[in-house]
Amino acid sequence: MNEAMERVNVVGGGLAGCEAAWQLARRGVPVDLYEMRPVTRTAAHTTGHLAELVCSNSFRSQSLTTGAGLLKEEMRRMGSLIVTLGEAHQVPAGSALAVDRVRFAEAVSERVSSLPGLRLIRRELDAVPPGPTIIATGPLTADSLSERLRELLGAEHLYYYDAISPVLTAESVDSSVAFRASRYDEKPGDYLNLPLTRDEYYRLVDAVVAAEKVPVRSFERFFEGCLPVEEMARRGRETLAFGPMRPTGLVDPASGQRPYAVVQLRQENREGTLYNLVGFQTKMTYPEQKRVFSLIPGLANAVFVRYGSLHRNTFINAPRHLLPTLQWRGAPRLFFAGQITGVEGYIESAASGLLAGVNAARLAAGTTPVTPPATTALGSLLRYISDTGREAFQPMNVNFGLFPSLPGKVKGRRKKEIMAGRSLRDLDRWWLETGEGAAAAREA
After folding, report:
1. What is the C-alpha separation between 207 and 368, in angstroms, rounded?
2. Whole-prediction pTM value?
3. Is 8-157+315-443 a CATH 3.50.50.60 domain?
């Protein structure tokens, strides 16, 4: 640890902040990591752990033919703490990487807080601290700091509201109704599935639409990738049957037929004692959640350990304010990372924290910050959020639609395979050219 080097402030102890702090510390840069919890609570967190997951426990697909799977592989090659500990604490979830959220957060907290040269400071900041800083406060940025950022950036924050799915005990699910399967998998799968007939499905949809909701003000809006179940149901009676309740690839062993619709439960912890309702993020009141979700076959006696809820999700107008290096256009010593930049999703947030940490460390060492090639998953995502020609900016998950086109006409899965291969080759070459790959090899 270079004690003569200026300390870097990391504000926010979520996935992005922890990944950034890790990347800085492993490069010998001293870090002050600020986390306001548990001194100041948020509307969604329940513990004081670093990297607490408040929505799903899934980091999404592991397949290289998906944007999320490819991004995770890029992060592995760049030495990601979040991916490493996610895999160390994963729970069954088919082809996805899902984690035991408690053990994962505990592991990240222990690893980060013990980093040499890192000071973990538990207090809320109401201003950007002096010196090189990474703002990684996430979607639940405190009002006081949010106001300071608004003043600093000279533009209003954009924001929408995010919804969380309920979690219930496995033993309260009726095992005579539920069957274990993953879509198109002949072997016993990783999900518990609750089949619904046509009449049961419509009864549930009607109850969801009619249920009492937590009020939402007129200027609040939802991200399309995480709509509340009642918002989806309101768009049409069949919307859920073609969305999170689609029965494709599933056969109910009791009937030998594909059900009209299905509710999937995904394992929440390693012991398999808790499950969450996949795609059932909601803004219904707690009593209504108990009443409505009990209409789902197999959940008549469900015991909910966490109800769904609604929270503010704040992000800046990144194309106006950020360089692809995640530096603020107004001052190169100020970085932003995580969902506040407009990347959407756990793994995207952690990936932006990784690059912000790398670039802040490079700046501290007197070298030039870098940006991954646009052909990589991370590079394509950064290009999206920093594109100055984008007028209507909305948060985005990583996806192959952001990648530069391939020469020639290639379609379907083969197109994604070629893009993934190109991405990893370009990433490996770039990582070595920056000197980061060689340093990582010496460290290993």
Report:
1. 57
2. 0.82
3. yes
